[in-house]
Amino acid sequence: MQTQRLNFAGATGATLSARLELPVDEQPIAFALFAHCFTCSKNFKAAVNIARALARAQIAVLRFDFTGLGESEGDFAETTFSSNVDDLVAAARFLESEWQTPAILIGHSLGGAAVLQAAHRLPSAKAVATIAAPAEPAHVTKHLRSSLEEIRKCGAAEVLLAGRPFTIRKEFLDDLDQQNMAETIRKLGRPLFVFHSPSDTIVGPENGARIFELASEPKSYISLDGADHLLSRSEDSEYVGAVIAAWATRFLAVPLDIEAQKVSRGGVVVRTGRRRYHTEILAGGHTVVADEPEQVGGANTGPTPFELLQAALGACTTITLRMYADRKEWPLEEIAVRLRHRKLKPAEAPAHDQGQPRLEEITQTLDLSGPLDDEQRARLFEIAHRCPVHRALEAGVNTRMELADESGQGGK
């Protein structure tokens, strides 16, 4: 997928830093807006993983740093919960001006409370998802307990949050106290998905239960068993992203023939970014991941290119046999094929009538299940050699390469 670095003006005029995660082919079916947790940033691991999971499902995601945090300009001490909500609305307006209005709002922790508030000002939002969100924004004061008296008495105090110093002003506390979250949730008027861990020690699970209780239908709840508040394990955040993507498409204004539209775009798009060898592949509207093993510097997040080549040959072989057996009405119940790739030494390579000997070899072992007679098995073995991918590899494939121009289109 492609990650674009962006900047836009926040609610107070400060320049806010953002990242836009786009699908591999840069043609999303919808846009989502992500709000990070209190004093976090757009780049914390869970936010990145959730955004990329959605992008793999053809949903673009804008994640940004609130005023005074991360790479954004402004003074955090001058912000409030309400100003964070204003920043969210500004981010939505930016998306609307440059691409399209966000159809999905996603918020983590205090960001979850913020998207619930912002939804009332963003009628384009079709669905809202909260992750480990407090039922009341004032829940934040639980982590300021030792400094509350000083803040209220002196007007401000420096507090340590996640090991970093932040200045919290009395105006921040006053703003939290003024929020009527229960009424906000009751009047949300949008599908809501609540994610919360029963072992969350930062924002207890009773908060997720309360949000779910207050919300009107349609609403959904998933208990993230074993997850911590920050979704530190990648499998937790990737799961949340994949579930949100599957759930949200139910409420998006996407044509019923969207799959056909994706396929009609034609071709295959492959993109490798800065995550070492992690590679996204879009083919026929479906996303596949490729990578390299850890021992050669990859992260083993997907099959290698040669494994994908073997998979293509194996899939073509089994599909071809299925088609043939169905047409003949033979009792072929299942086809399995095991493939092995190896490099040959020149002395091992069989003679070839078209020039240089071929030093790459793929061996297929067919396993045909069903009450077939010997003649049928022999015929199926013969047909297996006629699958289109097998024929293309045997004949040799002409490949042509060209450099894209500034518009991203191929040359002549």
- What's the total helix number? 12
Can you give the helix content as a percent range? 25-40%
Approximate shape: elongated
- Looking across the biggest beta sheet, what order are the strands in? 1-2-4-3-5-6-9-10
Spell the H/E element sequence: EEEHEHEHEHEEHHEHEHHEEEHEEHH
How far the N terminus sits from the C terminus, by CA atoms, comes to 26 Å
Q: How much of the sequence is in beta strands?
A: 15-25%
CATH architecture of the largest domain: 3-Layer(aba) Sandwich
Q: What is the CATH H-level superfamily of the largest domain?
A: Alpha/Beta hydrolase fold, catalytic domain
Give the mean pLDDT: 87
Runs in which pLDDT lies below 50 for 5 or more consecutive residues are: 255-264
Describe this structure in words.
With 412 residues, the protein is of the alpha/beta class. The chain folds into three domains: 2-143 and 173-254, Alpha/Beta hydrolase fold, catalytic domain (Rossmann fold, 3-Layer(aba) Sandwich), CATH 3.40.50; 259-296; 305-395, GMP Synthetase, Chain A, domain 3, CATH 3.30.300. The chain is built from twelve helices and 15 strands. The protein has an eight-stranded mixed sheet, with helices on both faces. Strands 11-12-13 form a three-stranded antiparallel sheet, with no helix packed on it. Strand 12 (279-283) and strand 13 form a beta hairpin. The longest helix has 24 residues, at 305-328. The radius of gyration is 27 Å and the shape is elongated. The two termini are 26 Å apart. 36% of the residues are buried. The model is unreliable at 255-264 (pLDDT under 50).
